[in-house]
Amino acid sequence: MNLVKQRKSSKSIQKGALVVLLILSVISSLFFVNHNASFYDETIAEVTQTKLLQKEQVTDEFQNRDTIYHQELTAKILNGNEKGRIIQLQHTYTASGGFDDAYHEGNKLFVKKNAENQFDITGMKRDHLLLGVVWLLILILIFVGRKQGVLSLLSLVINMGIIAWVIQSYTNWDDYLIPLCMLGCVLFTVISLTLVNGWNEKTFTAILATLVGTFISFGIAVFVLWLTKENGMRYEELQFITRPYKTLFFAGLLVASLGAVMDIAITMSSSLFGLYEKNPHISIKQLAKSGREIGKDIMGPMTNILFFVYVSGSIPMMMLFFKNHATFTYTLSTNLTLEIVRALVGGLGIVLTIPISLFIVLFFIKRKQVKQ
User: Fold this and answer.
1) What one-character DSSP code corresponds to residue 279?
2) pLDDT tens per residue across span 9-36
3) DSSP letter string over 33-96?
4) Is the pLDDT of residue 188 over 70?
C-alpha cells in the first residue's frame, strides 16, 4: 500500500514539475520576444502615440468604394545606434485593409531611413503574436491529448523539418521534386503514425494503406490529366514562380492528398482491430460488413471537408473578381480549377483507401485467426 502511495506521489510531483516548467517556458519565451529588438538588424520602433490627420472617400471605375486614412505616428526607436530617439512617421491605410494595416499604440514597426533622411515603415513586428498562437496550439494539444498530444506535436515538428529538407533539396536538384515528395510522403506517414500509435500491426496496416491509396490516386490523376492534355487547367496563379509550375502543382497534389488518406487509413485500421481485440472470434464476414459501414460513415464528411478546405482559400480572390465585374464562369474557371482538381484527387484517395484499408486489415486479421 505504501509503495502504491509513493508511486502516485512521485507521479504527482513529476506532473507538477512539468506543469511549472511549461508555465515558465511560456512566460519566459513571451517575455523574450517582447524585448528582443536588440537581436534584429532592422531598426525597430514602438508606436507611442497615434493621430488621425485626414480621411477621404474614394470610388474606382467599377464603383467600388473605400476609405483612405492618413495617420501620423509618434514612435520610439528600440535598437541600433539611434536607440531611444523619438521619430515621426507618416502612414496611410484603407478601410478594406487589403495591403495595409492601421497601427495603434504599442505596435512595434520595422522602419528604414529614406533618401531624405526620414524614416519609412517597412513592416510590423509580429513574432510575439506568432509565438502566442504557437503556444496556444501546444497547450491545447497537451491538455486534450496528454501523451498523445505531445507525440503529435513531436510528429508535427519532425514533419516540418522533412518539408524544409525536401524544399532545400529541390533547390539543389531541380529535376527530382516528385521523387523527393514521394520520399517525403513515406517519411511523413511512417513517422507520424509510428509516433502517435506505436509500432504494431495496426500502425503497419495504416501505413501500408496510406501509401498505396495515396500513390494510386496520384497515379490516376496524372494519367487522366495526361489523357485530357490538361484541357481546362488554369495555371495562371502559379506562373509567377520561376520554377516549372506544373511540376510544383503535381508535387502539391501528391502531398495534399496524403493527410486525408492517412486519416481514413488509421480510422479504418483502428476501428477494425478494435473490434477484433474485443471479440477475437468475430468472423471475417462480420468484420468486412462493419468495415464497409465505417467507410460509408466517414467517406461523405471527409470528402466534403476536403472540398471546403480547398475552395475556401479562393473565396477572397473570387470576391475581388466579382467586385470588378468579372463574369461568373470566368471567375470560377480562373480561381477554382486547381482547387477542384486537388479536392477531386483527395476525394479519390479517400474513396480508394477505404477498400484498400479493409482488404489489408482483413488480410492481417485472418492470418492472426489462422495462427490461433
Assistant:
1) -
2) 666 777 778 888 888 999 999 999 988 9
3) HTT-GGG-SSEEEEEEEEEEEEEEEEE-TT--EEEEEEEEEEEEE-SSTTTT-EEEEEEEEESS
4) yes
Tell me the three state secondary structure of residue 234. Answer: coil
| Residues 358 and 288 sit within 8 Å (Cβ to Cβ) | yes
Give yes or no for residue 47 having a pLDDT over 90. yes
Report pLDDT digits (tens) over 277-318. 888 888 888 988 998 898 888 888 888 888 888 788 788 888
Strand residues in the chain grouped as ranges (E): 43-59, 65-77, 86-94, 108-113, 119-124
Handedness of CA 211, 214, 216, 222 (dihedral sign): negative
Cell numbers linked to 119: 524614416
Q: Which long-range contacts (CB under 8 A, 24 or more apart) does 227-232 make?
A: 232/333, 232/337
User: In the prediction, which pLDDT does 31 show?
Assistant: 92
The three cell numbers of residue 288 are 468486412
Q: Is residue 124 within 8 Å of 111, Cβ to Cβ? A: no
Closest CA to 281 of 363, 350, 368: 368
Summarize pLDDT for 123-141 with one digit per residue, the tens: 899 988 899 999 998 888 8
Q: What angle do CA 255, 259, 264 make, to 5 degrees?
A: 135
pLDDT at 208: 93
Q: From residue 109, give the alpha-carbon distance in Å to each of 39, 80, 254.
A: 15, 14, 39
152, amino acid identity = S
The answer to whether 205 and 360 have CB atoms below 8 angstroms apart is yes
91 close to 123: Cβ distance less than 8 angstroms:
no
Whether the CB-CB separation of 55 and 48 falls below 8 Å is answered with no
Burial class (CB in 10 A: 0-12, 13-18, 19+), 348: buried
What pTM, to 2 d.p., does this model score?
0.75
In angstroms, the CA 113 to CA 43 distance is 9
What CA–CA distance (Å, rounded) separates 326 from 319?
10
Rounded Cα distance, 60 and 66, in Å: 9
The answer, yes or no, to whether residue 1 has pLDDT greater than 60, is no
Q: Return the closest-CA partner of residue 27 out of 154, 128, 125, 106.
A: 128
